[in-house]
Amino acid sequence: MTAVLARPAIHALLADGTTVRIRAVEPEDRDQLHRLYEEMSPENLRMRFFAASPGSAVLAADRACGPARPGRRALVAELRGRIIGLAEYDEGDERGSADLAVAVAEGLHHRGVGTLLVEHLASAARADGITLFRADALSENREVMRLFSDLGLRVTRRADGPETRCTILLDQDDAYLRAVEDRGRTADLASMEPLFRPRTVAVVGAGRRPGSVGRAVLRHLTTGGFTGRSFAVNPHAHALLGVPSYPAVAELPSPPDLVVVATPAAAVPTVAEESGRAGVRALAVVSAGLDSVQAQGLLTACRTYGMRLVGPNCLGVANTDPALRMDATFAAGHPRSGSAGIGVQSGGVGLALLEGLSRLGIGVSTFASLGDKYDVSGNDMLQWWENDGVTDLALLHLESFGNPRVFSRTARRVTRRMPLLTVDAGRTDAGRRAAASHSAAAATSTLTRHALFTQAGITATRSVGELLETAALLHAQPLPAGPRVAIVTNAGGAGVLAADACVEAGLVLPAPASGLVEDLSAVLPDGAAVGNPVDVTAAVGEDELRACLDLLTDHRGVDAVVVALVPTAVAAATGDDLVRAVTQGPDGRRSPTVLVRMEQGLSVRLLPATGGNVVPSYAEPHAAARALAHAARRTAWLARPPGIRLVPEGIDTRRSRAVADNWFAAHPEGGWLGPRTCAELLSCYGIPQVPWGWAETEDEAVRAAERLGGPDGRVVLKAYWPGLVHKSDQHAVCLDLIGAGQVRSAYRDLRTRFDGRMTGVVVQPLAGRGTELLAGVVQDQVFGPLIIFGLGGTATEVFADRAARLAPLTDLDVHDLIASPRCASLLFGASGSGPVDIDALEQLLHRLSWMAENVPQLAEADLNPVLATSGGLSVLDARVRLLPRRPQDPYLRRLR
User: Residue 796: left (phi > 0), alpha (psi -120 to 50), or beta?
Assistant: First the structure.
């Protein structure tokens, strides 16, 4: 086994929301570990060592602090500098298995210390090649037995007298990930209580000067009717806005749950340190402009004292629960109480959403302006809304992602319960640069974000306006059963605009069935055109329009109805109110109904309707169509099963890691693999490659051609040298060579043109006819491995016809990858040449996904072209790049 790599210390949450530090044991910990065991009760010592033996405890502490060596790790959990738990493993003679031992400080059981340590130790063990833990325990030790059982890992037990040997398989399957998520959610919610349900709030930096940010936050707390206690911290005032003021946080009558910091940037770390020492449990830092030293000081204080942090550079937080009414923001007005949760990085976007949702009447449940997002993130907000019992609509605006794979798993779970909407910010290069500058975090590519949103079922809009338009529909109306839309209008031109908008949004306008045509004709005035759109004419009355809508919304061939109305003198003269015909129908129509009124000033309004319902009314048809299209896509996503991760046959993970380790031994800086190593790595995952040979001389090239040439003897020569990436651009490929003479001539030509660079040539048989495709992996620095699929060959960059999904891929992800590119119809036989082997394509993508997951150093893999035919597929050219990278466990519980 290779030398043990040091793992950096991290912070994580216990079950009660307490922050602890997980780190490797150091020699200096010996005294603390002695004390850990000395303070244990005789009974706990007996459970740990099978005898109440102080001598065994001393030996155990000394062994844990011994020198690091391969096959052995020891981790401690530290609470404010005090070691409260130890977990260690030691690999025995049987390779791949290790003995596990766990100890938790007296009085700190049942808080998740041992479970958290074992999670982190298991993650380190996987990276070290350990596949299972073994642990001996007294059969009566129910606590440790429960710890092992509740991990979510597969555990077997074998009793041997008074002892039980437990075997714990370390496979990170979905059951284990769900168990980790459940524990993480419990801990996260406990840690967020002081932030969103504080009993006491203090504002540090509130001054006498009108217009200051701190004073505005304090005013919002008081005028918003906060039901808890409020304090100001200002050394120059005894009271501000009728709120008692104290010189420092430490001098408050009792430690507040939440402190809002609105001081100059230079004072923020000191305030955070004082707050932590005083027992504060959460900070919202609205101050902006922190430099790197100040930022580190702020975060260190929060981690040391276990405070959750929103910001810095934020608007604050709010919870509109009538029992709390906490508005600790400096927004223009108080948010209206409601059911939409808002989490944003941009303060401007946050203000727009607060105003828009309040105006629509949807209102807000919880609001957090995340700002620079040092700690509390979108993941935290999703888990809070999932469990607060109020939120039924989630709105996020994130410019960066801290742990995208955990976010994706959380979002997939939450979007099954409520719509999750976001603005797809940073779609252009300029937007991505602005996002990176604004949030001081890596901005991600459009392709990667779209993969995340699609796989997680997130509704991604292109603007704040579109987000509010969609939120209005999802809040007000049932989801459509599908994309089929019927348009009803009293003006032909409005109907045409609505029809164009619906088709452009991806909706379908079916012709009405004959029976429906007869029914509609019977209730509409003479001259009405009963098609789709249904032109009811300007002569339509209120009752006639209502009857028309009742027929359409009850018809099984219609999934949604768009009503485009223009004001007419006819309706005004008769006293008919056509809008009332839409809003005052039966109590709850089966299909969603939306209204378009182009004379309406606001882009979207919610109109009161029968039975306490509401109907969205849009100012133009494209807004209504976009909202309906988003709703239809949500219906389709909810109808999909979660998907299954398949394990292809013939994968050799251990050999693939050995290939990478051996290559790094000679190339520690990383780079592109040579043809032999590349082929060996691909073979570990059963990826089919065209037969090939390596030649470093003219004669070797001829012999390889004679061996590899097919029935007609035609071969291809491809020059190679380290760093060569685009062979076609370099004209480093010679095609359709027949016989020794042409092979020799081609080899000489390549050698002459690339003299001093070329180290050899790859010889392959000339490929037959088929569809050239691209399949590959890109390791995103934030999101992890991304699987790419699309049109290949020399047209790859020209047409950029490709799709992407984040690994690991499920069977449904693979299906989507194949079906998403524009060239998909070719794969299913649209060109008349017959379909390609879809099963082989699916296998290829599954195998790429496993390779991307199993080889953490994989920076890039490019299989192009992949020749697909009805009889299978083969990789004609492959490039793989490895970079030195520490294995990362994206699902390991940790704070940012």
Answer: alpha
**Hey, what are 44's tokens?**
């706990």
The Cα-based distances of 189 to 52, 179, 387, 516, 526 in angstroms read 38, 16, 8, 52, 62
Measured at the alpha carbon of residue 334, what is the angle toward residues 332 and 335, in degrees to the nearest 5? 110
* Element (DSSP H or E) covering residue 614: strand 614-618
- Cβ 862 vs Cβ 776: under 8 Å: yes
Measured between alpha carbons, how far is 581 from 418 in angstroms, rounded to an integer?
A: 30
Does the N-terminal peptide bond of residue 808 adopt cis geometry, omega within 30 degrees of 0? yes
Rounded Cα distance between 151 and 181, Å, is 11
Dist. CA 759–CA 737, nearest whole Å: 20
| Nearest CA-CA partner of 242 in 227, 221, 258, 259 | 221
Question: Pairing mode, if any, of strands 529-530 and 534-535?
Answer: antiparallel
The DSSP symbol for 195 reads H
Written as six digits, the tokens of 27 are: 């020699």
DSSP string, 478-523: PPPSSSBEEEEESSHHHHHHHHHHHHHTT-B-PPPPHHHHHHHHHH
pLDDT of residue 573: 62
The DSSP line for 392-418 is: -EEEEE-S--SSHHHHHHHHHHHTTTS
Q: How many CB atoms lie within 10 A of CB 509?
A: 17
User: Which residue in the block uniquely carries the two structure tokens 């037990």?
Assistant: 157
Tokens of 320: 């509109």
Q: Are 475 and 522 in contact (CB under 8 A)?
A: no
User: Closest by alpha carbon to 139, among 39, 36, 40, 46?
Assistant: 46
At 226-274, the pLDDT tens digits run 999 999 999 999 999 999 999 999 999 999 999 999 999 999 999 999 9
As a whole number of angstroms, the distance between CA 393 and CA 370 comes to: 18
Residues of the chain with pLDDT under 50: 1-4, 427, 430-444
For the whole model, what pTM was predicted?
Answer: 0.89
Among the listed residues 479, 375, 408, 541, the one whose alpha carbon sits nearest the alpha carbon of residue 17? 375
- Report the candidate in 196, 269, 259 with the shortest Cα–Cα distance to residue 233: 259
Question: If you ran DSSP here, which 8-state letter would residue 562 be given?
Answer: E
| Nearest partner of 116 among 714, 895, 791, judged by Cα | 895
What pLDDT is attached to residue 574? 64
- DSSP 8-state code for residue 41: -
The number of beta carbons lying within 10 Å of the beta carbon of residue 270 is 15
Helix (H, G, I), strand (E, B) or coil at 378: helix
Q: How far apart are CA 253 and CA 567, in angstroms?
A: 63
- Report, in angstroms and rounded to the nearest whole number, the Rg of the chain calculated over CA atoms: 32
CB 562 within 8 A of CB 486: yes
CA 545 to chain centre: 45
3-state SS of the chain: helix, strand, coil percent to 5? 40, 25, 35
Is residue 827 within 8 Å of residue 771, measured between CB atoms? Answer: yes
Residue that has been written with the tokens 């603005």 in this structure: 423
Q: Which residues contact 486 (CB under 8 A, 6 or more apart)?
A: 509, 510, 512, 532, 533, 534, 552, 555, 558, 560, 561, 562
